[in-house]
Specification:
Ubiquitin-like (UB roll), alpha+beta, five-stranded mixed β-sheet, single chain
Length: about 130
């Protein structure tokens, strides 16, 4: 059993489909946590309340066994427990999952939200610093 401060304990990964891509996520977890498992940075820093108040984590889906022509159901991923074979057909634009509906960020690439570089001190300021 895998135990974590972030995820509910789970024994295995299960397969679901997100926007046509097959992915593996931890069983026994809310879907928003599963999205975080897939894309830690974008979901952790996303605009989510995590308690069902905002609807930013809304998604549309079909359950395992639903025919392709069945109407989509909708739910909030912060309140929905993942199930094997789930087919997620649409996501609220706030849900950005790297490698699914957002570009995968290379670990060596600087983050877009990285702090800007400090401006260089003027020669006068540097000289004043040296004299004190």
């Amino acid at each position: 059993m895998v135990e974590s401060d972030l995820f509910e304990p789970y024994d295995r990964l299960i397969e679901i489909e997100v926007l046509g891509r097959r992915v593996s996520v931890p069983e026994n977890n809310r879907l928003l946590r599963c999205f975080q498992f897939l894309s830690l940075r974008t979901i952790s820093y996303g605009d989510f309340c995590w308690n069902g108040d905002c609807t930013n984590c809304q998604f549309w889906y079909r359950e395992p066994g639903d025919p392709a022509e069945a109407p989509e159901r909708t739910a909030l991923s912060c309140r929905f427990r993942v199930q094997e074979g789930l087919n997620i057909t649409r996501l609220n634009p706030c849900v950005q999952i790297e490698g699914v509906n957002a570009p995968r960020r290379d670990a060596a690439q600087p983050a877009d939200d990285a702090a800007p570089a400090a401006p260089e001190a003027s020669p006068a300021a540097a000289h004043a610093y040296q004299e004190t």
